[in-house]
Amino acid sequence: MFETFENYIRSKIDLHQDELKHILSLAVIRKIRRRQLLLQEGEICRHKVFICKGLLKTYRRKEDGTEYIMKFAPENSWAIDPESYHNEIPTKYNIEAVEATDIMLWSKASFHELFVSIPAFKSFSEKLMFSSIDANQDRILMNISSTTEEKYQDFIATFPDVFRRVPLHMVASYLGVSRETLSRIRHTQLKHHKHNGIS
Fold first, then answer.
1. pLDDT tens-digit readout, 121-169
2. Cβ pair 46, 107 in contact under 8 A
3. What is the distance between the alpha carbons of residues 164 and 156, in angstroms, rounded to a whole number?
4. Are 161 and 74 in contact (CB under 8 A)?
5. Is 198's pLDDT higher than 80?
6. Alpha-carbon gap, residue 54 to 199, rounded angstroms
7. What residues does each domain of the chain span?
């Protein structure tokens, strides 16, 4: 697991070996079973989580039991509820393993210590936060300005690996459409590709 994170962080920022060791020394390693909850609605998000292997989903469940997936987090990405984490208030979301998942996590106190001792790591973390905000804005724009077909194509283009790993009903939940609608679109597109000789 350490090797996965080391390769990831070295591709983002220049670190001395002792700085990397310090970051790793404050990390907690966990293995999450498929369908195991990492964070549950009503709890306070107290850790930043890096996914070394596997796949997590962040979702919200309405009173009628309908699940709305907000985000998928595969390898080399992070999972957190920023509002709950920063303000120390109960989360409205759940974070759950879609597959057996290996993670590294850091407490808020640990991250604060790393920010003080490694300025480059703080700068990287801030850039990551702004990048996440931009991605959320892009997703909102996509949802209010695009057709279901366009949203489906964008999801496949943006997250090809995730698309291959999750069932269709999860893709439908993420896109905010019914499974039936998505099945129809997929069937139409497969027929179109077959007709045009596209494999």
1. 999 999 999 999 999 999 999 999 999 999 999 999 999 999 999 999 9
2. yes
3. 9
4. yes
5. no
6. 28
7. 2-118
- The answer for residues whose C-beta is within 8 angstroms of residue 115's C-beta and 6 or more apart is 121, 122, 125
Cα(103)–Cα(96) distance, integer angstroms: 12
Q: 157 vs 106, 115, 151, 164, 181, CA distance in Å?
A: 31, 35, 10, 11, 19
Task: Specify the CATH class of 2-118 in words.
Answer: mainly beta
- C-alpha angle 33-94-159 in degrees, rounded to nearest 5: 75
Do the beta carbons of residue 55 and residue 162 sit within 8 Å? yes
Q: Is pTM beyond 0.85 here?
A: yes
d(CA 124, CA 114): 12
Cα–Cα distances in angstroms (integers) from residue 37 to residues 17, 98, 101, 140, 151, in the given order:
34, 10, 11, 26, 28
